[in-house]
Amino acid sequence: MSTNVRQLFDLTGRTALVTGGSRGLGLQMAEALGEAGARLMLTSRKAADLEEAVALLSQKGIDARWVAADASDPAQAQKVCAETLERMGPVDILVNNAGAAWGAPAEEHPLEAWDKVMNLNIRSLFVFSQAIGRMSMIPRRHGRIINLASIAGLGGNPAGMETIAYNTSKGAVVNFTRALAAEWGEHGITVNAIAPGFFPSKMTRGTLERVGEETLAAHAPLRRLGDDDDLKGATLLFASQAGKHITGQVLAVDGGVSCVTGG
Fold this sequence. Notes:
single chain, about 260 residues
């Protein structure tokens, strides 16, 4: 017998850990999970940003908490996972959203900046996924992992971005997602990725100012950039029972940019 569609998307009783969840796309995704009934643990580096985000979510009736940490530091990441389990119990949904970019021509890109981007954008995904998988998801034979990729990881260099470390890291996120999905499917864990196009945010501000919002929007078949709602549907699909038969997939939410750039 089939399940009512509202029940398929209902996250009541579920717990989600969202990295980089204090603002931007991470906060949008956290909001979607909370609005569907999930309890939230948010983490990012700055306590003030986290307090503001949790206050905003609480006003909407969402059960949200926070712990400040640098996701690129494995010891701090491990501590976040342990504290989340201690304070909230088993984690059903892990959103690996924390990320950073660095703009520079490839021939001038500093090595330390390369390492900074790689450590946060891809190594942290492994650390968080391994910890939550080992401590919570594999023993319970249930879990939903959502990784944040980017169209920059699909098509190489959209809009002439001089962000080689970022683009490379997001390409790694795509294959990390597929590899982990193949390995952990037997444990009842789905692993998928969302690849956003251009959304106004602190990270994209430089590109938006350099190239121009209208120019970037004109490259998208839908002639628009992403907004404050555009990741919510994909997040809820991958996090809920509605997506229980979807794993190892990368969904571009980009207004169609990747279908014309070959990503």
